[in-house]
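CHAIN AND CONFORMATION:

***
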Amino acid sequence: MLTVRDALKDVRVNMLKRKQTRFTQILLTHLAAMKWGFLSAMCCTWALALADLLSPWPLKIIIDNILLDKPLPHYLTFLAAPFAQQKTLSVIVVSCTIIVISVYCCRSHHSIT
């Protein structure tokens, strides 16, 4: 037998389902209208995260491989000859890489805001 309490409970559950459905519909409508801006912001966020992950690598290459003469990793062996012959030029090139990554970070961060 259905009591008043059970009936009110069913009404509340149905109201919550309708509110969630309406909220979901409003959210999806808004996201559809803003999809390109949202996609652009997500790409800039990923690019910023990638640039932040790459930023310590040039400094590591300068210290380990140019100044301390440790061998380069296998994926950078094409740089072994220039790094061994001209240390000053190598430091300048890798330092420029640090500047490029920093500028890229700033541009990505500016695009997000």
